[in-house]
Amino acid sequence: VGRSPTQMASVLKGYLDQGVVGNIVILEAFANNSISDDALDAMINVCGNRMVYLVTCHSDNADRTQKFNDAIMRAAQRHDNVKVIDWYAYSQDHVEEWLYRDGVHLCEAGKDPYVSYLANSVKDDFAAAGGTVTTQDSDATGDGPSQTDGTSQSS
Predict the structure, then answer these.
(1) How far apart are CA 23 and CA 155, in angstroms?
(2) What is the mean pLDDT of residues 28-39?
(3) 44 secondary structure, DSSP code
(4) 154 — phi, psi (to 5°)?
(5) Of residues 144 and 72, which shows the higher confidence score?
(6) What does the alpha-carbon distance between residue 64 and residue 76 come to, in Å, rounded to a whole number?
(7) Which phi and psi (to 5°) does residue 94 adopt?
(8) Is the pLDDT of residue 103 over 90?
């Protein structure tokens, strides 16, 4: 959070060198800055054989949003270890409710749906890697947590 795409590869490499990155990586930093295929590839390549999730985004400009999200989709096609979390599609009917007027940043009402959607999106791969995920129901209503099977808290 708070990094431009051009900074993310080096910051991520630093975390990897410290040994604090698990087997699943979620990358989301695409709404405020332009993103190139090369920059996405650099971020993904730094992750090695880890499962990488790229999160689609919203912005205040429909053309820019389309460009960002198209780049994410192309990256998923180029890399076998990449999956897409389509936050753009999931949140489309809740933009005014979950995002500030800039169309990018989460307001208070959007925080829980965002976290729940991401957690629900990765829980199967996380559990397969030996982790445990506690999530809200997939509709983000907060009706109660559900937990996947797993034996540890790390991945």
Answers:
(1) 5
(2) 78
(3) H
(4) -115, 160
(5) 72
(6) 19
(7) -130, 20
(8) no
| Residues facing 125 on adjacent strands | none
Least Cα distance to 16 among 53, 45, 46, 52 occurs for 46
Euclidean distance between CA atoms 57 and 87, whole angstroms? 6
* pLDDT value, residue 112: 95
Please determine, for residue 154, whether its predicted confidence score (pLDDT) is greater than 70: no
Q: Are strands 82-85 and 134-136 parallel, antiparallel or unpaired?
A: unpaired
Name the burial class of residue 29, with classes exposed (0-12), middle (13-18) and buried (19+) by CB atoms within 10 angstroms of its CB.
Answer: buried
Instruction: Name the H helices within 86-142.
Output: 87-91, 95-98, 108-128
The Cβ of residue 122 has, within 10 Å, a number of other Cβ atoms equal to 23
Tokens 């990449």 belong to 82
Amino acid residing at 45:
N
Query: Residue 22: what are its φ and ψ, rounded to 5°?
Result: -80, -160
- The mean pLDDT value for 43-50 works out to 92
Contact 56, 21 (CB under 8 A): no
Question: From CA 33, how far away is CA 68, in angstroms rounded?
Answer: 9
